[in-house]
Write a structure and sequence with these properties.
Layout (H helix, E strand, L loop, with lengths): L8 H14 L6 E4 L20 H4 L4 H11 L7 H7 L6 E3 L7 H14 L5 E4 L4 E2 L13 E2 L1 H9 L3 E7 L5 H15 L4 E6 L3 E7 L5 H13 L6 E7 L7
Parallel strand pairs: 1-2, 1-3, 3-6, 4-5
Antiparallel strand pairs: 6-8, 7-8, 7-9
Length: 243
């Protein structure tokens, strides 16, 4: 995540989903921004929807207004604006910058674990999504979430929501690959996908999570307009950890 993305159309969809999963604060969400420095690029510039309230505001009017306010002034396009707005009821946040180097990244994740000790669902918001062939610790590795990190939080009995950008490949096969890799490090989880035009959010619900989290996920599938965010339940994966 970068500050320059705040308020764009993908941000709108992301927070709408988080608000649905929060269920008004009934589910404690920890938001790990995985913040990286702004790069001066064009990403995050998709703000035209804010000038079309007749088309977009009805999806989540209160959230739309929060993001319109945030995007109106450059100084307000900051993650702190989202945190201070209360857009995600009762959420916890970890907003330190994620470094590329392996030692710094390890320290980041330890602190994140401590910050979200009481969270039931941890949202990871990497720039790109799940790890690729780039080794952890290399330049630009901060743009990815690595599978061993997913495993660490899952083993701590956390449910996880993960941002994943769609690369320019065939989507069905790519999504199947993501699901398979996650199931490999999150045995016994229930999974949902929440798909938008350019990204998918992958939800892994730990079997020891409160039932209300799975209920919120199912309600999100029903209540979110599929033209905005399309939810699908993939069911429970019954493989268990070896002992």
């Amino acid at each position: 995540m970068k500050h320059q993305y705040v308020g764009d159309i993908s941000d709108y969809r992301k927070y709408a989903l988080l608000r649905a999963l929060s269920a008004g604060g009934g589910n404690q969400i920890g938001v790990c921004w995985m913040l990286t420095p702004d790069d001066g690029g064009a990403d995050g510039g998709k703000l035209a929807y804010l000038g079309q309230p007749e088309r977009f505001r009805h999806f989540d009017p209160a959230l739309f207004d929060i993001l319109a306010h945030a995007a109106a002034e450059p100084d307000r396009r900051r993650l702190q604006t989202i945190e201070d707005s209360g857009a995600i009821a009762g959420a916890l946040y970890y907003n330190e910058t994620l470094p590329d180097d392996a030692v710094g990244r390890a320290a980041f994740m330890v602190q994140c674990t401590s910050q979200f000790r009481d969270a039931e669902l941890v949202f990871f918001d990497p720039d790109n999504g799940l790890e690729v062939s780039l080794p952890k610790g290399r330049k630009n590795s901060s743009k990815y979430l690595y599978l061993d990190e997913v495993a660490t939080f899952y083993e701590a009995r956390k449910s996880l929501l993960i941002y994943q950008h769609f690369p320019r490949v065939e989507r069905k096969a790519f999504l199947a690959s993501c699901i398979g890799r996650l199931r490999g490090v999150a045995p016994g989880c229930a999974m949902w996908t929440f798909t938008t035009s350019h990204v998918v959010f992958l939800l892994l619900v730990h079997p020891e999570s409160p039932a209300r989290l799975a209920v919120a996920a199912m309600e999100a599938c029903s209540h979110l307009d599929p033209a905005f965010v399309r939810g699908e339940c993939l069911g429970w994966h019954r493989t268990t950890l070896a002992v």
